[in-house]
Amino acid sequence: MSKSITCMTGVIKSGKDHKAQIFLSLNPHAQLVNFADPLRKITWKLIGCETKTPEQYEIFKKQPVKIDKYNLYFNTGRDLLKFVGDILNIADKDYFIKQWEASVESFPAKDIITTDARSPDEIRAVYKLKGKVIFCNYPSKDYNCTDTHVTEQMAQKLLSHGFRHNDIIEQAVFECIFNE
Question: For residues 23 and 32, what is the distance between their CA atoms, to the nearest angstrom?
Fold first, then answer.
Protein backbone atom coordinates (compact mmCIF):
# COMPACT_ATOMS: atom_id res chain seq x y z
CA MET A 1 0.00 0.00 0.00
CA SER A 2 1.38 3.41 -0.89
CA LYS A 3 1.41 6.06 1.82
CA SER A 4 0.92 9.78 1.67
CA ILE A 5 3.63 11.49 3.70
CA THR A 6 3.44 15.15 4.67
CA CYS A 7 6.39 16.68 6.48
CA MET A 8 6.35 20.03 8.23
CA THR A 9 9.69 21.74 8.85
CA GLY A 10 10.65 25.09 10.31
CA VAL A 11 12.40 26.70 13.26
CA ILE A 12 11.41 26.24 16.90
CA LYS A 13 7.76 27.09 17.58
CA SER A 14 6.94 27.97 13.97
CA GLY A 15 3.59 26.17 13.84
CA LYS A 16 4.64 22.65 12.77
CA ASP A 17 2.81 20.79 15.54
CA HIS A 18 -0.23 23.08 15.33
CA LYS A 19 -0.53 22.45 11.60
CA ALA A 20 -0.18 18.69 12.18
CA GLN A 21 -2.90 18.70 14.85
CA ILE A 22 -5.30 20.40 12.43
CA PHE A 23 -4.50 17.80 9.77
CA LEU A 24 -4.92 14.93 12.24
CA SER A 25 -8.25 16.29 13.48
CA LEU A 26 -9.51 16.38 9.89
CA ASN A 27 -8.09 12.94 9.09
CA PRO A 28 -8.56 10.63 12.10
CA HIS A 29 -6.93 7.72 10.26
CA ALA A 30 -3.64 9.59 9.82
CA GLN A 31 -0.65 8.81 12.02
CA LEU A 32 1.96 11.18 13.47
CA VAL A 33 5.43 9.63 13.01
CA ASN A 34 8.37 11.82 13.99
CA PHE A 35 12.10 11.40 13.57
CA ALA A 36 12.61 12.18 17.27
CA ASP A 37 10.15 9.58 18.59
CA PRO A 38 13.00 7.19 19.51
CA LEU A 39 14.89 10.10 21.09
CA ARG A 40 12.00 10.75 23.45
CA LYS A 41 11.69 7.04 24.34
CA ILE A 42 15.40 6.83 25.18
CA THR A 43 15.26 10.08 27.15
CA TRP A 44 12.27 8.87 29.20
CA LYS A 45 14.19 5.69 30.07
CA LEU A 46 17.23 7.78 31.03
CA ILE A 47 15.28 10.02 33.43
CA GLY A 48 12.89 7.32 34.64
CA CYS A 49 9.61 8.98 33.66
CA GLU A 50 7.81 10.32 30.62
CA THR A 51 5.40 13.06 29.69
CA LYS A 52 1.87 11.91 28.90
CA THR A 53 0.42 14.97 27.16
CA PRO A 54 1.70 17.63 24.73
CA GLU A 55 1.29 20.19 27.51
CA GLN A 56 3.50 18.16 29.87
CA TYR A 57 6.07 17.78 27.10
CA GLU A 58 6.17 21.55 26.54
CA ILE A 59 6.73 22.10 30.27
CA PHE A 60 9.47 19.43 30.32
CA LYS A 61 11.34 21.15 27.45
CA LYS A 62 11.51 24.42 29.40
CA GLN A 63 12.41 23.17 32.90
CA PRO A 64 15.82 22.22 34.31
CA VAL A 65 16.56 18.48 34.40
CA LYS A 66 18.88 16.77 36.88
CA ILE A 67 19.80 13.09 36.51
CA ASP A 68 21.32 12.14 39.85
CA LYS A 69 22.24 8.60 38.76
CA TYR A 70 24.70 10.01 36.19
CA ASN A 71 25.45 13.31 37.94
CA LEU A 72 24.12 15.24 34.94
CA TYR A 73 22.36 18.60 34.92
CA PHE A 74 20.72 20.35 31.97
CA ASN A 75 19.36 23.90 31.96
CA THR A 76 16.24 22.67 30.14
CA GLY A 77 14.66 19.45 28.98
CA ARG A 78 15.27 20.68 25.43
CA ASP A 79 19.00 20.76 26.23
CA LEU A 80 18.81 17.16 27.45
CA LEU A 81 17.02 16.10 24.26
CA LYS A 82 19.69 17.83 22.15
CA PHE A 83 22.44 16.09 24.16
CA VAL A 84 20.92 12.63 23.78
CA GLY A 85 20.28 13.30 20.06
CA ASP A 86 23.89 14.38 19.57
CA ILE A 87 25.13 11.16 21.24
CA LEU A 88 22.88 9.01 19.04
CA ASN A 89 24.06 10.85 15.91
CA ILE A 90 27.68 10.29 16.90
CA ALA A 91 26.98 6.57 17.22
CA ASP A 92 25.08 6.39 13.90
CA LYS A 93 24.44 9.51 11.81
CA ASP A 94 21.46 7.80 10.15
CA TYR A 95 19.92 6.43 13.36
CA PHE A 96 16.85 8.69 13.30
CA ILE A 97 16.26 8.17 9.58
CA LYS A 98 16.41 4.37 9.90
CA GLN A 99 14.02 4.41 12.85
CA TRP A 100 11.62 6.79 11.09
CA GLU A 101 11.56 4.73 7.87
CA ALA A 102 10.88 1.55 9.87
CA SER A 103 8.05 3.28 11.75
CA VAL A 104 6.47 4.67 8.59
CA GLU A 105 6.58 1.21 7.04
CA SER A 106 5.14 -0.53 10.10
CA PHE A 107 2.21 1.79 10.81
CA PRO A 108 -1.02 0.77 9.08
CA ALA A 109 -2.10 4.37 8.47
CA LYS A 110 -2.13 5.46 4.84
CA ASP A 111 -1.51 9.13 5.72
CA ILE A 112 1.64 9.92 7.69
CA ILE A 113 2.47 13.30 9.21
CA THR A 114 5.97 14.29 10.35
CA THR A 115 6.69 17.54 12.17
CA ASP A 116 10.33 17.38 13.11
CA ALA A 117 12.62 16.89 10.10
CA ARG A 118 15.74 18.73 11.27
CA SER A 119 18.42 17.87 8.72
CA PRO A 120 18.79 17.72 4.96
CA ASP A 121 19.14 13.93 5.16
CA GLU A 122 15.85 13.65 7.05
CA ILE A 123 14.12 15.74 4.38
CA ARG A 124 15.70 13.53 1.72
CA ALA A 125 14.22 10.49 3.51
CA VAL A 126 10.78 12.11 3.14
CA TYR A 127 11.38 12.74 -0.58
CA LYS A 128 12.68 9.17 -1.01
CA LEU A 129 9.24 7.93 0.12
CA LYS A 130 7.54 10.40 -2.27
CA GLY A 131 6.48 12.72 0.55
CA LYS A 132 5.89 16.44 0.38
CA VAL A 133 7.57 19.03 2.58
CA ILE A 134 5.83 22.16 3.88
CA PHE A 135 7.74 25.05 5.42
CA CYS A 136 6.19 26.47 8.58
CA ASN A 137 7.02 29.98 9.73
CA TYR A 138 4.20 31.14 11.95
CA PRO A 139 5.86 33.19 14.70
CA SER A 140 4.19 31.97 17.91
CA LYS A 141 4.98 33.55 21.27
CA ASP A 142 7.94 31.18 21.78
CA TYR A 143 9.15 31.38 18.15
CA ASN A 144 12.95 31.10 17.93
CA CYS A 145 14.82 31.51 14.67
CA THR A 146 18.17 32.19 16.36
CA ASP A 147 18.89 28.90 18.20
CA THR A 148 22.40 27.86 17.16
CA HIS A 149 22.07 24.09 17.60
CA VAL A 150 22.79 22.01 14.50
CA THR A 151 19.16 20.83 14.45
CA GLU A 152 18.00 24.38 13.71
CA GLN A 153 20.46 25.23 10.93
CA MET A 154 18.51 23.67 8.04
CA ALA A 155 15.31 25.57 8.86
CA GLN A 156 17.29 28.79 9.28
CA LYS A 157 18.89 28.28 5.88
CA LEU A 158 15.46 27.74 4.29
CA LEU A 159 14.23 30.88 6.02
CA SER A 160 17.21 32.83 4.68
CA HIS A 161 16.30 31.67 1.15
CA GLY A 162 12.91 33.36 1.45
CA PHE A 163 10.59 30.48 2.26
CA ARG A 164 7.35 31.63 3.85
CA HIS A 165 4.69 29.97 5.99
CA ASN A 166 2.93 27.13 4.14
CA ASP A 167 5.33 27.10 1.18
CA ILE A 168 5.79 23.68 -0.42
CA ILE A 169 9.50 22.90 -0.74
CA GLU A 170 10.04 21.12 -4.03
CA GLN A 171 12.81 18.52 -4.02
CA ALA A 172 14.76 20.12 -6.87
CA VAL A 173 14.78 23.50 -5.10
CA PHE A 174 15.74 21.86 -1.82
CA GLU A 175 18.67 20.08 -3.48
CA CYS A 176 19.87 23.30 -5.12
CA ILE A 177 19.95 25.00 -1.70
CA PHE A 178 21.65 22.14 0.13
CA ASN A 179 24.14 21.22 -2.58
CA GLU A 180 25.59 24.74 -2.74
Answer: 10
